[in-house]
């Protein structure tokens, strides 16, 4: 789960984020609720960051 969180933080476009949706769902089945919540929060924050930058960071 921590590897996915790092990948989420490194995403620069919405397309990159969308590619991680399925791996997140698969990993969440084996992770604790706290880890899932953390991952969802990181995903949401990164998505909002990308939206504020006009769709692309960097």
Automatic annotation (TrEMBL):
This is Uncharacterized protein.
